[in-house]
Design goal:
This protein is of the alpha/beta class. It contains eleven helices and twelve strands. The longest helix has 18 residues. The structure holds ligand PBG.
């Protein structure tokens, strides 16, 4: 049937018909909101390149958690700014480290809020790389043991899920083994399986103060030109025991999200990263775009591409919009 018997516009006639035939819906249940935690007391510090996002001290987390739960957001992922950094990233697995303290505070004040943690060394090393540095290169195998220690320390502090973002080979298997040996066999691993060496992480590196002092991350993060390699990376992580596969960044990599969705049956997460968020905020602040509508359309595109889970700095404002 073609025009004039068939008319596509019939189902676009009013909001009720449009919502009846809508194929993709956003829900606050699919959002994970990133939180930046720092030492000190009574601190809520705006991050200039990420309007609406704050670094906060541990004592602020209870109120933050209540606000999130009130909006229907049930998940956070934690990033830490430690008091001290060293070459071995020891602050990453310290019992009283910033993340471990933050997890205990959140689980104490708001047990219903699910706490995931970013497992990586870059926030804790003085050189800013995601592992142990040797002659200017990150030593993969020496790094694995420390990543597993970090993940275990998060689980011991009460984390509900761990998310390794370092891109070392073999880290999912190593973390799974150490968690299981220590009776954390029910803590899932959300693997940053497909993480590109992206310029879109710029604002995050300011926020978390974790830019490499020298060199870049191209020796471990993926080349933005590659898509077959994404499937290989994801396959390896599935074999090693990942529970959720993540693609990062999201918007510039919608094709990768779609191919993982088609290829795997695990839940797929996408990280709508700092630079992707900042661009919307900057254009909106200039009055060049309608920020709310562009944020909504952007998150919809991530969902439509096949992501079940969206990690986004826009979670709160989107929840407010969705809740009407
Ligand atoms: C840590 C990490 C980074 C991000 C998440 N975890 C930075 C990086 O890899 O350089 C970026 C998140 C964002 O840009 O929002 N390795």
């Amino acid at each position: 049937m073609v025009f004039p018997e068939y008319r596509s516009r019939r189902l676009r006639r009013n909001p009720q018909l449009r919502s009846l035939v809508r194929e993709t819906r956003l829900s606050t249940e699919q959002f994970i909101y990133p939180l930046f935690v720092m030492p000190g007391k009574g601190i809520r510090q705006a991050i200039p390149s990420m309007p609406g996002v704050f670094r906060m001290s541990v004592d602020q987390l209870g109120a933050e958690a209540k606000e999130l739960l009130g909006l229907g957001i049930q998940h956070v992922i934690l990033f830490g700014l430690p008091a001290h950094k060293d070459a071995g990233g020891s602050g990453g697995h310290a019992k009283d480290g910033i993340i471990q303290t933050a997890i205990r505070e959140l689980k104490n004040k708001a047990p219903q809020l699910m706490v995931s943690t970013d497992v990586c060394m870059c926030e804790y090393t003085d050189h800013g790389h995601c592992g142990i540095l040797e002659d200017g290169q990150v030593n993969n195998d020496a790094t694995l043991e420390i990543l597993a220690k970090i993940a275990l320390s998060h689980a011991q502090a009460g984390a509900d899920m761990v998310a390794p973002s370092d891109m070392m080979d073999g880290r999912v298997a190593e973390i799974r083994a150490v968690l299981d040996e220590n009776n954390f066999d029910m803590v899932p691993i959300m693997s940053y399986a497909v993480k590109y060496a992206s310029a879109f992480y710029g604002p995050f590196r300011d926020a978390a103060n974790c830019a490499p002092q020298e060199g870049d991350r191209q020796g471990y993060q993926m080349d933005p030109a590659n898509s077959r390699e994404a499937l290989r990376e994801a396959t390896l992580d599935v074999d090693e025991g990942a529970d959720i596969l993540m693609v990062k960044p999201a918007v510039a990599y919608l094709d990768i999200i779609r191919s993982l969705r088609d290829e795997f049956d695990l839940p797929i997460a996408a990280y709508h990263v700092s630079g992707e968020y900042a661009m919307i905020k900057a254009a909106a602040a200039n009055g060049w775009i309608d920020g709310d509508r562009v944020m909504h359309e952007t998150l919809l595109s991530i969902s439509r591409a096949g992501a079940d889970i969206i990690i986004t700095y826009g979670a709160k404002e989107m929840a407010k919009l969705l809740n009407g």
